[in-house]
Structure formats: C-alpha cells, structure tokens
Amino acid sequence: MxxxxxxxxxxxxxxxxxxxxxxxxxxxKAEIARLLDVHRSTICRELNDKxxxxxxxxxxxxxxxxxxxxxxxxxAHDNYLKARKKCGxxxxxxxxxxxxxxxxxxxxxxxxxxxxxxxxxxxxxxxELEGKKLFTSRTMYNYVKSKDITEIKxxxxxxxxxxxxNRKKIDRVNKRILGRSIEERPETINTREQFGHWExxxxxxxxxxxxxxxxERLSRKVVIQKLDKHDKASVELxxxxxxxxxxxxxxxxxxxxxxxxxxxxxxxxxxxxxxHPSSPYEKGGVENVNGIIRRYIPKGTRLETLTAADIQRIExxxxxxxxxxxxxxxxxxxxxxxxxxxxAA
Length: 345
Description:
The chain is an alpha/beta fold. The chain contains twelve helices and eight strands.
C-alpha cells in the first residue's frame, strides 16, 4: 500500500511530475493521486494531455526497436511554466499600444530637458479631457519604474524619487511690522474660495537684478515681471501697472525690504498681508512656481540678460500647462473663465 502524502498543493511541482513519470507504468492513476494527495482527475489530465508526451524508444539496444509515446516530466513542466506566464491580468497598454506611444511623443515634445517637460500626469490628464483614456497616470508611472515597457526612464522624471519632508510649524514674531499679518487673512482666502487673491515674491540674482512673480491662488495664474533693480521703488512701479491690468483683491508677501511700502496702498477693496519670518510655506503657491521658473533660470543666471520674450515664454509655459488641481485645465483657461464672472458680480 502506497503511503499517502498529507501535504496539500495548488499546483503540481517539478518533483511531482518526476514521480508521475517514474510511476506511470507501475501504478494506477488513482494510486499516484493518493500518493501526491491530489484529485485523480488532476493526474488524468496530466497524463492524457498530448502536449506533455514525448516519443521514446522502448528498447535502446535490441534489434526490434520501437518508438512509444510516453509522459515526459520535463516537457510537462515546461508547458506548465509557459502557461503560467500567460495567467493574470494583461498589461493595459497592450489593448492599444498607440496610446502609450502618443503619451511618449507628447512627453518628449513638451520640453527640451527633464526639468522643462510636462509631467506624465499632466499629459495623460490633458488627453483625458480630449476623450482619450486607456490607463491612469499612476499606471504610467508604474510602467516607467518597470524599465522594460516604455522609453521614458525614472531619470527623465526629476521629481519621481523626491521625498516630502515633514515640516514642523514654528510660530515666529515679526520684528518688522510691515502691515497686516497673515493671521488676519480671512478663511475664504486661505481655502481658495474667492477669485482675485494673489501671492507675490521676488527671484533675485547676485547683482541686484530681480523678477517679481505674482500668483493668483484660485486659478493658479502666474505673472512674471522684470524689475530694473531689486528694491522697493522698482516693485512699486511694477505693482502700479499690475493693479491696472489684473483683478486683485489682496496680495500676500514675505517680509523682504522690497515690499516695505506695499501696505500703504490698501483700500476698502484691496488688502495686503505679510507672512511670518522664515515661513515661505505660508505662500507655498508662489514658492512652487519659483521652483518651476528655476528650471529655466538656474541659480547663478544674470537676470539682467533675460529679454521680455524669454520671460514671456516661461510665463506661457506655466500658464498653459495642464494642472491636476484644476481638473487638467490650464491656468489661463481657468482665469479666463473666472474673471468675467467676478466682474459681472
């Protein structure tokens, strides 16, 4: 009586198949099944499958040599491994490889370098607005990580491996009282419920040249203006022009000396707020935009060499970039939708 193995298996192993090959002519299928602790039908299917059989000579050295079809453990296990590779969910891009190629093409054409190209999330979100969708941006990022599906590599995505640091908020007291503290800012501004509230900041180089960057909190629209000099007089000149061109209910600045006189321009319909010292995260929108601008203008660049066309090109790039936070619309489009509603109110 053959001893029954009590170990349960979901699939036959290579060792199981060698046992079947060894006992196929010595034991019945039921006996082999009891030995391997599997159902008899499993052994029947394994032995009856023609793909698992091979031709062997029954008498290698005799004169009357015959060829016989016999179960082959090696061939059966190779067939099993091939079948296993075909199991499971298929890659989504296999349903339409043209979609993947279109994503890659839009990615390479969106900029000249890794720092200036659109994110994959922005590209796929924009395609979704056009009615094209096969897989999500998260799936595309997984394809990039797999390194064998797409030509886009992790090094082509500079923020793919970035880590967010946990910032501990430290309340600091302003030594310079330039105007209203950000603590007085209404909750409607903090939650981005109302249109017309901006953040302002300056990008500077080492020789007193600067850019004034303004960022509208609800639409995420960006305006970049070149300053003649990094001082309050130059800021006041540009801001006076800005107020005549764009709809503005409030602006939040840091405590830089170039913004010392901004609070003097407050009216019943326009307020100015100042962040706490060393707290750039309190106007995180414009700080994030500064990081995007730095992709085109690395630190050390002489800002006085920039032309109006250079600045406009960077501004257009940011404002025409599909944004996930805007439902993959662009900042220009959202600003254009909100402004008439505000003026009509």
